[in-house]
């Protein structure tokens, strides 16, 4: 299990369905960095991450310059030791941002190696809890308009989803946002949960005013209503409204999430595995469980099923379908649930033609 080689690859892959999160369809392709860690015995572990707003080349440069040289000759099973070494080695220029993104991809690849060596899927290596996890249909983008969001929500319901997520803020005034929520509720009926994602568009007072208007439509949660740094704003909103206030996808590691844990007003946290890796996400889940909080991770449901199938406080997975077409054996929702795969490691492998045809120069 001694690491002999680390390979990093950049992929530019066209979207199957262009996101419309801020109006017009996104012009960039899917931008992915892939990390392959090979041991002396020939095992290869794979980690990856995808960014929507650019910067993937910077992540790869960070990997190649600051991190890959520290991996050669290490024992790949020393996942915690390697995580700590990379964290401390980049602490003065990192703590959050690019350095954590880079080490997260490495962390995923290392756990893949450990699972392969043990011949166990990660959810069993970590202590299996359940085989199926509920999933909600995401991607009812605000750029589709109210009618478009309603149509996509209906499509999710026809596929067996019992919960959908739409977007508000940024493009619309208050009346339009409320009308769009009404359209989605009318489209899916009373028995489907509706999550609302604000993407940090508001201040706390606006979030409280809008939340009171949304309560009429039996909204399941209001997500990221304010900027990530506005912890007191989150508390104000949670104390003022009856509906659930959730967040966490933009926060890096459990250290950044500490104020949410010290003041557990959010019933559900949404950590992202690219902001700390699988090692950190499992620690966040344990800390959240201590305070009666559940985990509904941000995106990457094909990988997050491994964590969610191994913890007692996993709530729901988010499916947007960003990467479904890239895998040799995709992990897909069926009737509103995702079943944990039983392949060793995380069990994900990019199609060879994707790695061959979509690779780009740094």
How would you characterize the overall build of this protein?
The chain folds into 2 domains: 3-119 and 351-360, 2-Layer Sandwich (Enolase-like, domain 1); 124-339, Enolase-like C-terminal domain (TIM Barrel, Alpha-Beta Barrel). By secondary structure, it is α/β, with parallel strands linked by helices. The strands form 3 sheets. Strands 4, 5, 6, 7, 8, 11 and 12 form a 7-stranded mixed beta sheet that branches. Strands 3-2-1-13 form a 4-stranded antiparallel beta sheet. Strands 9-10 form a two-stranded parallel ribbon. It is 38% helix and 19% strand. Helix 2 runs antiparallel to helix 3. The longest helix is centred in the N-terminal third of the chain and has 21 residues, at 98-118.
Brief rundown of the structure:
The chain is of the alpha/beta class and 362 residues long.
- Give a quick account of the main beta sheet: strands, pairing sense, barrel closure: 7 strands, mixed
Question: What is the count of distinct domains?
Answer: 2
Helix content estimate: 25-40%
Strand content: 15-25%
Query: Structural class, from secondary structure content?
Result: alpha/beta
């Amino acid at each position: 299990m001694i690491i002999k080689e680390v390979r990093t690859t950049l992929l530019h892959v066209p979207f199957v369905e262009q996101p419309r999160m801020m109006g017009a369809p996104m012009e960039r392709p899917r931008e992915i960095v892939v990390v392959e860690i090979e041991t002396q015995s020939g095992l290869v572990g794979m980690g990856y991450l995808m960014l929507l707003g650019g910067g993937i080349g910077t992540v790869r440069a960070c990997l190649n310059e600051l991190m890959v040289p520290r991996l050669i000759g290490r024992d790949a099973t020393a996942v915690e030791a390697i995580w700590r070494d990379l964290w401390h080695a980049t602490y003065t220029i990192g703590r959050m941002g690019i350095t954590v993104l880079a080490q997260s991809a490495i962390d995923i690849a290392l756990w893949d190696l450990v699972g392969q060596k043990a011949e166990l899927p990660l959810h069993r290596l970590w202590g299996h809890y359940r085989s199926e996890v509920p999933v909600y249909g995401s991607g009812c983008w605000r750029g589709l308009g109210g009618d478009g969001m309603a149509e996509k929500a209906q499509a999710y319901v026809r596929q067996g989803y019992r919960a959908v997520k739409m977007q508000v803020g940024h493009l619309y005034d208050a009346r339009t946002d409320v009308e769009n929520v009404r359209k989605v509720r009318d489209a899916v009926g009373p028995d489907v949960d509706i999550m609302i994602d604000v993407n940090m568009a508001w201040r706390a007072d606006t979030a409280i005013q809008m939340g009171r208007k949304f309560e009429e439509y039996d909204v399941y949660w209001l997500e990221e209503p304010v900027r990530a740094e506005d912890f007191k704003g989150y508390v104000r909103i949670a104390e003022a409204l009856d509906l659930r206030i959730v967040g966490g996808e933009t926060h890096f590691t459990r250290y950044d999430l500490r104020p949410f844990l010290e003041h557990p007003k959010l019933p559900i946290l949404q950590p992202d595995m690219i902001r700390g890796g699988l090692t950190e996400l499992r620690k966040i889940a344990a800390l959240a469980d201590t305070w009666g909080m559940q985990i509904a991770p941000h995106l990457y449901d094909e990988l997050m099923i491994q964590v969610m199938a191994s913890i007692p406080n996993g709530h729901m997975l988010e499916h947007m379908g960003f990467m479904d077409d890239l895998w040799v054996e995709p992990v897909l929702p069926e009737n509103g649930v995702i079943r944990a795969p039983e392949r060793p490691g995380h069990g994900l492998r990019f199609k060879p033609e994707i790695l061959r045809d979509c690779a780009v120069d740094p």
